[in-house]
């Protein structure tokens, strides 16, 4: 049965397009499956998982003079008239000898750009593009129209309240390139840090600006690890001090045990699997670190996988993108075929040219990076605990219709973080409706976004922007 499960998954991955927003494509599950089987094989004794890291202290800083002007985007093909903010994109070299350069896209604010904070946004995967998914599907200023050639303005874009920097990370993802793919957490954090200190030389006006980081899914690893590296380097180097104020983790994969337990409990409480399957999982599966996944457990996991049937479990109530019929609009109005439009748009030569990108086949996720990821700590909760005690603000947010890294998982994570409630659970209000729920913990804020799936700003753009604004203001979302 276990073999059948693997074959089945393998087969389903082969026949599906690797498009992040597409039904059936599940990069996080793919990476975790490989990672978990490796953990079992190594039986935790071996350190083979942890690749030897190249250290490059002090971090590389290359000449940046004049590059900002070069990176300015005059206009994206098909962008609507009246675009009233500045956009930049291009490459920052992070390792000249290995030909490694990371691609970024900066969307500045239309108003108050010179005082609004700078926010780094990261998508997960691992291996998925922050520009294609984050900017063009979720929170950026534009959405690609169904024609694949024109753009429309996203009213609830996050650059309304911040200057948002989308980074394609690690090298090999999206437009970022390298002669050698980066497939581990540690090097990803180092390269992202090197990117930031170089980028700040290119855009020196941001050096002292309030800086935040946000990301979702596997960025639950990237964001805390990069935050920790920034705080360490702020102390020990004579390089740029990065004015890190806070992080926000959305539907984040931060602990492997809660990722499993929270997901199956969510499936059961959301009527996706039967009582029998749920009981079987509870009885036979031990998901804690070091435990072995038995054949009986595998069998129930397989049953749970099959029981879901054909739903998009990154947003369980959303319609699917169907080539055969006009999709019924989803509750949120989000077009489930969006990812196809993005794929078409970003592979248009004129678009790549306007972005100063190398001509490549752009893909929303890099399957090689995703499948060959090497070091993946079982949990990053200890890193998050350090950040909580460091004084920066730490927010965990969750779209409550995501089945991939569901709200139950985030609640189990918070339980493991062992903090205490300061402001008890209350509904937060937006435009006269409940936007979600909030709990203020010691050094941690938890916010749900009601009716949003994994890609929170795609499904609930107005609520997502309200939450994000609160996060930047350091105030809990409104009670009224
Ligand atoms: C990386 O690839 C580029 C393009 O093929 C080449 O010019 C460069 O020398 C390579 N760098 C290394 C370190 O191999
Ligand atoms: C711009 O900043 C001013 C002063 O802080 C503030 O009153 C105004 O609301 C801001 N406008 C926007 C659109 O953020
Ligand atoms: C930073 O410190 C290193 C090592 O002490 C030194 O070599 C380097 O010149 C310093 N850089 C600057 C910009 O002061
Ligand atoms: C699950 O596995 C862990 C690690 O091997 C072990 O300490 C724990 O007792 C197990 N839990 C149960 C309920 O068997
Ligand atoms: C919160 O931060 C304070 C100050 O750094 C620290 O002493 C305390 O242990 C932290 N508590 C939690 C639960 O993180």
TrEMBL record:
Name assigned to this protein: Carboxypeptidase
One GO BP: proteolysis
EC number(s) from the headed UniProt entry: 3.4.16.-
Main localization of the protein described in the UniProt heading: secreted
Molecular-function GO term, any one: serine-type carboxypeptidase activity
Keyword Ribosomal protein attached: no
Superkingdom in the source lineage: Eukaryota
Record-linked InterPro entries: AB_hydrolase_fold, Peptidase_S10, Ser_caboxypep_his_AS, Ser_caboxypep_ser_AS
Species assigned in the record: Deinandra increscens subsp. villosa
Subcellular location: Secreted
Record Gene3D superfamilies: alpha/beta hydrolase
């Amino acid at each position: 049965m276990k073999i059948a499960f693997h074959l089945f998954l393998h087969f389903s991955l082969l026949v599906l397009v690797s498009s992040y927003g597409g039904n059936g494509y599940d990069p996080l599950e793919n990476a975790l499956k490989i990672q978990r089987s490796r953990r079992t094989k190594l039986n935790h004794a071996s350190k083979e998982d942890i690749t030897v890291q190249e250290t490059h202290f002090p971090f590389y800083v290359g000449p940046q003079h004049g590059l900002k002007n070069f990176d300015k985007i005059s206009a994206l093909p098909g962008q609507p008239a009246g675009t009233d903010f500045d956009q930049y994109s291009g490459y920052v070299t992070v390792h000249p000898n290995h030909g490694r350069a990371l691609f970024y896209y900066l969307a500045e604010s239309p108003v108050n750009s010179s005082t609004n904070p700078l926010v780094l946004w990261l998508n997960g995967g691992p291996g998925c593009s922050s520009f294609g998914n984050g900017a063009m599907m979720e929170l950026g200023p534009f959405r690609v129209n169904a024609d694949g050639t024109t753009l429309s303005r996203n009213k609830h874009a996050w650059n309304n309240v911040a200057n948002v920097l989308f980074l394609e990370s690690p090298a090999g993802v999206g437009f970022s390139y390298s002669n050698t793919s980066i497939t581990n957490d540690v090097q990803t954090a180092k390269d992202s840090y090197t990117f930031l200190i170089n980028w700040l030389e290119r855009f020196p006006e941001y050096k002292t600006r309030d800086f935040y980081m946000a990301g979702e899914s596997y960025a639950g690893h990237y964001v805390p690890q990069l935050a920790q590296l920034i705080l360490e380097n702020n102390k020990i180097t004579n390089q740029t001090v990065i004015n890190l104020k806070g992080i926000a983790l959305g539907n984040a994969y931060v602990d492997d045990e809660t990722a499993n337990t929270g997901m199956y409990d969510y499936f059961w409480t959301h009527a996706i699997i039967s009582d029998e399957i749920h009981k079987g999982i509870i009885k036979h599966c031990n998901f804690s670190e070091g435990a072995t996944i038995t054949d009986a457990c595998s069998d129930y996991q397989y049953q749970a996988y099959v029981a879901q049937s054909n739903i998009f479990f990154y947003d369980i109530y959303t319609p699917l993108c169907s080539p055969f019929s006009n999709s019924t609009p989803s509750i949120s109005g989000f077009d489930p075929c969006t990812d196809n439009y993005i794929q078409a748009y970003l592979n248009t030569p004129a678009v790549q040219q306007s972005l100063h990108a190398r001509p490549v086949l752009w893909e929303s996720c890099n399957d090689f990076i995703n499948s060959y990821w090497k070091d993946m700590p079982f949990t990053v909760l200890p890193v998050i605990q350090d950040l909580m005690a460091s004084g920066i603000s730490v927010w965990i947010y969750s779209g409550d219709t995501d089945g991939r890294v569901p709200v139950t998982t985030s609640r189990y994570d918070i339980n493991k973080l062992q903090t205490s409630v300061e402001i008890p659970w209350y509904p937060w209000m937006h435009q006269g409706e409940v936007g979600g729920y909030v709990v203020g913990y010691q050094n941690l804020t938890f916010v749900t976004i009601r009716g949003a799936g994994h890609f929170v700003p795609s499904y609930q753009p107005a609520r997502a922007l309200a939450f994000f604004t609160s996060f930047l203001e350091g105030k809990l979302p409104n009670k009224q």
